[in-house]
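re: ur question from earlier - yeah i can do the single chain one, its not a big deal. heres the input i used so u can compare w yours
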Amino acid sequence: MCSICGEVNFINEPSLSLVKEMNKAMKHRGPDTSGVFYDDCASLGHNRLCVIDIENGAQPMSVFYGNKKYTIIYNGEIYNCDELRQDIKKQGIELKTTCDTEIVLYSYILYGEDAPKMLNGIFAFCVYDGEKAFFARDRFGVKPFYYSKIGDSLYFASEIKSLLKCDKISRNITKEALWEILYLSPNFVGGRSPYKDILELSPAECMIFDKNGVEKWTYWQVNAKPYFKDKKHAYEKTEYLVSDAIKRQLVSDVPLSTLLSGGLDSSVVSAIASEEYKKRGETLSTYSFEYEGNKESFQGSLFQPECDDDFATYLAEHLGTNHTVLTAKTRDLVDYLIPATIYRDLPGQADIDSSLLYFCKEIKKHHTVSLSGECSDEIFGGYPWFYRPEMLYSDFFPWIHSPRLRPSLFKDSISNSDDGYEYVRSIYKSSLTACPTLETDSEAMKNSRIASYLSVNYFMTSLLQRKDRMSMASGLEIRVPFADHRIYEFVYNVPWEIKFEGGVEKALLRNAMRKHLPNKILWRKKSPYPKTHNKAYFDLVKKFFTERYEHSHYLKETLDLSKLDEIISSNKTWFGQLMGAPQLLAWLIQFDFWLESNNINII
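and the output i got, formated as tokens:
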């Protein structure tokens, strides 16, 4: 993986020195090599994490075709390169590398604006030809892309911190952005950032910038279609699509591993990967995560009924992988809260972020690429809001259990609780309207579509953002095979009674992968990303919060400590499946740090 950034200006000469600074701010994403392209209209920067064709894949990459020069900067991985390479060669083009950067570049040269539709993978890229700049982002937004149009210049980057190197871009946030942070975060509405001047290229969007300005459009969306086959076909097609996605993503010229929690999704990925490695006479490396003191402190819940550790080691032995259990110390979870905020550019998911940052840095010591089971729950229906009526019909984003909780901590002059709630609720309502359905859908099928559509477009994007920022902060590439658009397009239209057969979440995936997993894993109830249950973590976070509060102008002026004490003592889960009282305190620490360190001004 990599980072990209740049300034394009067809009226005045762009700044080379600025783009070098922007590029430097994201060196962690591409620690191996860096490069810059510059001419009268464009200054483009790139940092590279070398994974495929290490010797020849340097960027920016330029080629001449016809009478024109094309230059690309690209962040991502393309998994149908073999098919595209054969097609490009049939056009009489002699490729000079085996890397996917050249494939993406020639796909654009040959097919123009249709090129993103042809790519199976995760990507964000810019192709510049002297007259215009073309940008595209992958269908699920696995790879990030932010931009800002200021005067005659278009600035863009993989991370917000890079754009903030430009003095012309303000650090102001609007009241609507603050509402989204208080009511929705770590979810954010696609197409924008909290910063007034910084926008986001949404998942599955393209953009052209030329002397006439900016033009954007969506090149892909999931469609609702009738399903005429039986469940046997659903099982077979699912097994093929999932297995094919995993196999395609095992290509690497550097050491590769998988993340194995012992849950269904990571176990599917590890099982298929292990089978392929055995065919090569190799042994797959796997990692699972644990926390200091967790076995002594763990208490099961509806959302996290049991620990992962025993299941992960059991499956690793069953598959014969080279397995490592990484254990995070409680002190590390607290110490990494601020770095996680810096790398995410926003207040995120507290220790859910900081722990992943720690684990990624440990994995990077031995591997450069890992495959993860992320994105399966949103597509196959693994979350409780797919089938629990009180969550599905809450009239708000269903994973936000208490939408008014965080805003209630702040003075109403800050949170504007009623206006903020109605504003965010209107976003939810608009999303319901946009969800593709059929008139012939049963109520259960319609509900499953809505749950999946909301989850993919909001919940999943926040998890992917977390995965991207924490892994790339460590120089580690994490791939997500379930985020293959072919899987989503198919599963979205499989009847709910097949996906939820027998009242079991993700029954379709379980039935499809029967021959690859032992029953102990295959039918295990869903368990989310593990978190610490060690009371020492809560104590350390309380101490950290108290110290920060004493020196914080913002929290002192806006926070109601009496309400905070009441919420903390109740220890309710307020977001998703993992965010309880310790995470709320940690989130407030991250929120305060973000405001202070970036000199945020609320307008």
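The mean pLDDT is 93. not sure if urs matches, ping me
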